[in-house]
Structures
1.
Amino acid sequence: MSNKKSFRSFLREILLIFIGLLLALFANNWWDDQQQIRETKRALLTLSSEVDSNVENLKNRLLYHGPLQDSLFRITGRTSSSTLSQLPTLDELGFNNGLGIDGQLKAIAWDFMINSQLYGKINFDLRLHLSQAYSDLEQLLLVERIVLEKLMAYLTGIMDEKPKYSDLNLLALLLSDLVRVEEGLKTNLEKAQKLLQE
C-alpha cells in the first residue's frame, strides 16, 4: 500500500511539474506575443510619421514643380532652336530656388520594416501601397539626379554664353517626368496613410 501511495504521490508531483511547465510556456509565449504587438505598433507609428512627413514634402515639391513645369513648357513651346541667344535665364524660368528640394524624402522606417520580421505582420494592401511608393521613391531620386545634371548643363551653357535649346527642352521633359513620379508617389503614400490611420 505504501508503494501505491508513493507512486501516486510521484505521479501527482510529475503532473504538477508538467502543468507548471505548460503554464510557464504559455506565459512566455503570451509575453513574446505582447512584445511583438508593442514592437509592431511602435514600428507602424514610426512608419506613419515617416509617411506623413513624405506626403507633406511631396505636396510642397508639387506646389513648386507644377508651375515650373508649366513655365518650361510655355517657353519651349514658343522658343525655336534658331533663337538660342534668347533663351531665358534660370530666374526667368522660375528656377531661382534650384529644384526646390528642401526636405529629403525618407525610407528609414520602411527599410526597417522590410528587414525585420514585422513586414509579414502588416496588412497586405498597406504593404502593396508602400512597396509601390518606395519603388517610386527610388525612381524619383534617379529622375531628380538627371534633372539636376541637365539643369547644370543648361546653367553651364548660359555661363559659356552657348545655351542649348536641346538642354532646355530635355529639362522640360524631365521635369514633367519628375512631377509625374512625385504625383504617383504622393498618391500611393496617401493610400498607405489612410490604411495606417485605420
Note: Confidence is low (pLDDT under 50) at residues 79-85.
2.
Amino acid sequence: MLNTYAILFHMETAGNTDRLNFSLPLFRGDPHPCPYLPGHTADNELTLVPRIDGAVYERLMDLGFRRSGDMLYRPACEGCSECVPLRVPVTRFKPSRSQRRVRRRNQDVVVETGSPISSDEKWRIYKAYLSHQHDGTMSDRREDFEQFLYNSPTKTEEMVYRIGRRIVGVGIVDVCPTCLSSVYFYFDPTQARRSLGVFSTLMEIQVCHERNIPYWYAGFYIRACGSMSYKADFRPYELLGPDGVWRTTTTD
C-alpha cells in the first residue's frame, strides 16, 4: 500500500524559523516474522531516499524512523509497540563501573574516523560477525554488505578499531546537526572478550563530547530482546513516546 502525507519541519537558524514542507511517500511492507521477538509478526512503513539532509533525517528520527542503506523505515506492527527509539543526552551520561572497565581493557585499541570505505578485510570480519552473532537471516553477500553499510543517503562516517594494523571492529555512524546516530557495529568474534560493542558506544559518545553534539542516538530499544535491551545500560537515556516527546528514563 502507498500512503502519502505531509510533514512540516521547523528549523531555527540564527533566531529565525525556516519552514520546509514536503510529502513523504510511504510504502507498507509485507508482514514477516519479527527478528527480535519470537512468535511476533513485524511490519514496517518504508521509503527510499537517494539523498537526505542531515537536519531532515534527524527530524525523521524524532518521528520514529531509522535507515538501512538508502531505505528509511519505522515499525508499524499491529498490536505491538516494543520498538522504542532511545537516545543518550551526552553531557549527562555517566559510564558505569563495568563500562569503565571495558574502556581500560581496550586501551591498546586505536580508533580511526573517516569516510566509509568497503574492503575485503572488513567484509571478512562482517561475515564472521554474522556467523557468530546472528541466526542466518541476514545476508553476508558482498553486495548486500555494501548496500547495507556503505550506501548512505546522508552524511556518514566510519570508525575503524585497530590493534596494530589489524582491524578488530568497524562502526558506521550518521552525523546530524544535534546528534550522532549509531547505524551498525560489527567486530572480529575472536575478540569477543573485549566487549567491543560496549567500547564502540563509549567511543561514539566521546566523539559527541569532542564535537559538542548533544545527543547520541542508539536506534530501537526492545526491552524483551537481549540484543537490543543493552542500550538501556547507557544512562541516563531518553525514550521517544508515542506522542513524539523524548522523556528521560533511568530505569527499565
Note: Confidence is low (pLDDT under 50) at residues 11-17.
